[in-house]
């Protein structure tokens, strides 16, 4: 009999069965961070008597509401059912398990949602955990504080908290990890086999958690989708405090406002949209404690170098650019394409590889080629070549660690109306940012009619269902033993000095080596970046 009632350190919880999986929704892992606990480290939840029904998800974290055509394709794919209520009382996690008893010690997957560090929530429809649970994983999705509630630094807060402030959302992550380590065995999970995973902003979270000294020895593997989160500089405490002060000033608070007044203020006073003229706090900060080094690569070597990693991105989520630019305006002409390539590569590299003759392109092909080369590595967003360099670096410095890299290139099926919207047009969007989530979780569903599909806007094909089964199996296998390969699956080479990677597209095709002229161009471009660690 499945585990429907479980005793945790704080009291008993009762789950609900959905799709033959037991889901425990809205399990508190910390006290509500409200009132005196606003902008403080999370504290233990209060214990309870009796059995707590966990059939309803907790609120999403406070955030401006997204929606509308301006946020396509996510609005119609992920948020078509609307949004759940939000609250500062958001420190809940959700557990999906098929274990029959606590002795099973199944691998554990802790999932951290995207949306930067500002938006999103842990139980979005594309994160449906039931298929991974059926494949032997105990899936835990985590809610944590976001934006100003999770990442505000102020001189007043630093004076109260030992000279540092901010990073409250990261503290929530560590608190959730400790809760899982303490309690997950009761749900049939193995506390010594935890994979942390995330996509987009979730990679910022998992990257920082893997590098956090307070999480050392508690994580075994990492899955980072659509951003490697290996390099980069965190803002200093003084920079973060100045940003927090400027933001509060823009809301009408005096610079020396007391913490008592701030903690008593209505939450909506802080909940301004992204269009607010002063930047809203939403970054982790180098504090020497939770974020131990300003340079992420330094703390990676110290704390995360020996963890197994599965990393990748999507063919379509960015265009060629020097900086970190998600999406980006389409390039409509060959002239725009060559001008952008010259700008990003630099004159010397552009000419060395005779770029215009190497990549002859017509106007109608410019956008697709720009996105393909960006996914391959000509972008500040990262790209596959950076992932391959990551694997090579780790093979030499941490030979016991495993690395697997991929590009997701399959274009999700569309309806005719999508051609009328450039933010849903498959020829422009291609494998858009976040599209792979329908496949890695195998969360897509084919209903009795197209209108009952999940989501209704996607006319899923037999191949989509097959690819979702294969990709979710790769992910589950990696969580189990650090290797995605398994019976019946095309072979996925590890990424090391062989530069192995997998193309997850209309076919599943493995690659090894850097033999082509394009590989050489990409390698030379990526390895010249100043923030790339040298062996």
Give the SSE layout.
Elements: E1 5-8, E2 11-14, E3 16-18, E4 21-28, E5 51-53, H1 74-77, E6 92-97, E7 106-112, H2 130-134, E8 138-142, H3 147-151, H4 155-160, H5 168-183, E9 189-199, H6 201-210, E10 221-225, H7 237-250, H8 259-264, H9 296-304, E11 308-314, H10 334-345, H11 347-352, H12 355-358, H13 366-376, H14 384-397, E12 403-408, H15 426-429, H16 437-440, H17 462-481, E13 501-504, E14 508-511, H18 517-527
Parallel strand pairs: 2-5, 7-8, 7-9, 9-10, 10-11, 11-12, 12-13
Antiparallel strand pairs: 1-2, 3-4, 4-6, 6-8, 13-14
Helix pairs in contact: 10-13
Structure explained in plain terms:
The chain has 535 residues and is α/β, with parallel strands linked by helices. The chain is built from 18 helices and 14 strands. The strands form 2 sheets. An 11-stranded mixed β-sheet has the order 3-4-6-8-7-9-10-11-12-13-14, with helices on both faces. Strands 1-2-5 form a 3-stranded mixed β-sheet, with no helix packed on it. Helix 10 (334-345) packs parallel to helix 13. The longest helix is centred in the last third of the chain and has 20 residues, at 462-481. The mean pLDDT is 95.
């Amino acid at each position: 009999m499945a585990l429907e009632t479980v005793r945790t350190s704080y009291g008993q919880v009762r789950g609900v069965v959905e799709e033959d999986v037991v889901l425990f929704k809205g399990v508190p892992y910390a006290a509500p961070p409200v009132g005196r606990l606003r902008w403080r480290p999370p504290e233990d939840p209060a214990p309870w008597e009796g059995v707590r029904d966990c059939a309803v998800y907790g609120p999403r974290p406070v955030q401006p509401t997204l929606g509308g055509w301006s946020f396509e394709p996510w609005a119609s794919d992920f948020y078509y059912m609307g949004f759940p209520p939000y609250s500062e009382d958001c420190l809940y996690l959700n557990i999906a398990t098929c274990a029959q008893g606590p002795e099973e010690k199944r691998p554990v997957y802790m999932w951290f949602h995207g949306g930067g560090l500002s938006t999103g929530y842990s139980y979005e429809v594309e994160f449906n955990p039931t298929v991974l649970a059926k494949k032997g994983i105990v899936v835990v999705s985590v809610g944590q504080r976001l934006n100003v509630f999770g990442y505000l630094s102020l001189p007043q807060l630093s004076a109260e908290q030992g000279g540092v402030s901010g990073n409250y959302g990261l503290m929530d992550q560590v608190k959730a990890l400790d809760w899982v380590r303490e309690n997950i065995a009761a749900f049939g999970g193995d506390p010594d086999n935890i994979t942390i995973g995330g996509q987009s902003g979730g990679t910022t979270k998992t990257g920082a958690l893997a590098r956090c000294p307070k999480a050392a020895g508690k994580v075994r593997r990492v899955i980072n989708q659509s951003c490697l989160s290996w390099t980069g500089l965190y803002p200093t405490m003084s920079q973060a405090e100045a940003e927090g002060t400027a933001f509060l000033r823009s809301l009408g608070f005096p610079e020396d406002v007391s913490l008592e007044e701030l903690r008593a203020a209505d939450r909506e006073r802080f909940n301004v949209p992204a269009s607010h003229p002063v930047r809203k706090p939403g970054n982790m900060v180098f504090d020497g404690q939770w974020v131990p080094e300003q340079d992420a690569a330094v703390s990676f070597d110290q704390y995360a170098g020996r963890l197994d990693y599965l990393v990748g991105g999507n063919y379509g989520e960015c265009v060629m650019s020097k900086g970190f630019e998600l999406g980006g305006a389409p390039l409509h002409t060959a002239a725009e394409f060559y001008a952008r390539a010259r700008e990003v590569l630099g004159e010397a590299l552009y000419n060395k590889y005779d770029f215009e003759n190497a990549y002859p392109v017509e106007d109608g092909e410019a956008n697709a080629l720009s996105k393909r080369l960006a996914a391959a590595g000509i972008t500040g967003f990262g790209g596959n070549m950076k992932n391959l360099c990551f694997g090579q670096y780790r093979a030499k410095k941490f030979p016991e660690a495993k690395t697997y890299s991929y590009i997701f290139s399959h274009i999700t099926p569309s309806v005719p109306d999508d051609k009328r919207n450039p933010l849903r047009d498959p020829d422009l969007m291609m494998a858009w940012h976040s599209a792979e989530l329908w496949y890695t979780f195998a969360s897509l569903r084919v209903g009795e009619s197209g209108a009952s599909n999940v989501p209704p806007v996607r006319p899923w094909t037999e191949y989509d269902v097959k690819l979702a089964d294969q990709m979710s199996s790769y992910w589950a296998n990696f969580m189990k033993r650090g290797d995605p390969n398994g019976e019946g699956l095309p072979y996925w080479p590890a990424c090391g000095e062989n530069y192995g990677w997998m193309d997850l597209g209309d076919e599943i095709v493995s690659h090894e080596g850097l033999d082509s002229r394009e590989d050489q161009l990409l390698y030379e471009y990526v390895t010249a970046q100043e923030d790339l660690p040298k062996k």
